Amino acid sequence: MTTTSTSRALAWGLLLSLAVVPIADSKAADPDSPRTALPVSKFVELFNGKDLTGWKDVNTSPETWSVKDGLLVCSGLPIGVMRSEKQYENFLLHIEWRHMKAGGNSGVFLWSEGSVPEGRRLPKGMEVQMLELDWINQHRLKNGEPNDIGYISGELFGANGLTATPDNPRGSRSKSLELRCKGKGEWNVYDVVCVDGTVKLSINGKFVNSIRDSSMRKGYLCLESEGSEIHFRNIRILELPPGITTAEQTAKVIDQE
C-alpha cells in the first residue's frame, strides 16, 4: 500500500470512528464533575415499514410504490423516481435490496436535484447502480458476447449532468473491484459513505468501489423505478457534520406541499 493510500485509509477510519464514538465535553476534565457526553449522530430510519412517510413521488404513479409485509415494493413502472423529503450532504446510507426478475434495473441517486425536467425520466445525481446479474446477458454486445461485467458490479457514476472522477474507471463510471452482488430473489446490502464529494460503496460487507470530485455535494435521495419489480428494506441514514459546500454544489430546495 502506498503512503497516499495509507493516509487516505487512516483518514476514513478516523472519520468513521468520530461518527460512532461519543465526545466528552470540557467538564469531563474536572474530577469533581460527572462525565458527560455531547449528542452523537445516530442512524435514522428512512422507511418505517408501514407507509411512504418521508418520501415524495416525482414522476411515477400511485401504483409504482407500495408497502407489503414490511417491505418497500417498487413495481418498476413507469420509469422514474421518488425522492426523500429533505436534502442530505455528508452521510452514511444503509440500504438493502433484491430484484424479483432476472435482468432487473434500479438504483439509488445521491445528491440529486430531486426533480426531472420535461423530456427526461431520471434526475441529475450520483447514481449507485442496482442491476440484476442477468442484465449483461439480456443486453449483449453486437458480436453476441455478454455486456461488460462492470455494469452489474455496483457501479457509481454521475447521471444527467453530474460529473465526478472514477477511482476504478470504466469510461466515466467507476466499477467495483469485485463482483459481490447477488442475483434474483436474494438480498443485497449496500453501505454508502458520502463525504465532501467522495462516495465509497460497500457491497455485502466489503468496500469495493469509490468515486470522487462530485460536482454536486448536497441534495435529495431518489429511489429508481426502471422496468421491473424490486424490493427495499432497512433504509437508514446517519448524517455527518457538513463540509464546505458551495451554492453551486447544492441542489435547489423543492417547495414542500
Entry summary:
This protein has 257 residues and is mainly β.
Question: Can you walk me through this structure?
Answer:
There is one protein chain. The chain is mainly beta. The protein folds into 2 domains: 1-40, no CATH class; 41-249, Exo-inulinase, domain 1 (Jelly Rolls, Sandwich). Helix content is 9%, strand content 36%. The protein contains 2 helices and 17 strands. It has helices at residues 3-20, 135-138, and strands spanning 44-45, 55-57, 65-68, 71-74, 80-88, 91-99, 105-112, 125-131, 156-159, 165-166, 169-170, 173-174, 188-195, 198-203, 207-212, 219-225, 230-239. The strands form 3 sheets. Strands 1, 3, 4, 6, 10, 13, 14, 15 and 17 form a 9-stranded antiparallel beta sheet that branches. The longest helix is centred in the first third of the chain and has 18 residues, at 3-20. The termini are far apart. Mean pLDDT is 90; it is low at 2-7 and 17-28.
CATH class wording of the largest domain: Mainly Beta
The number of domains: 2
Detail the poorly predicted runs: 2-7, 17-28
Radius of gyration, CA atoms, in whole angstroms: 19 Å
User: Helical content, roughly?
Assistant: under 10%
> Helix tally?
2
According to CATH, the fold-level topology of the largest domain is Jelly Rolls
Instruction: Kindly state the number of beta strands.
Output: 17
Q: What is the general shape? A: globular
The description of the largest β-sheet is:
9 strands, antiparallel
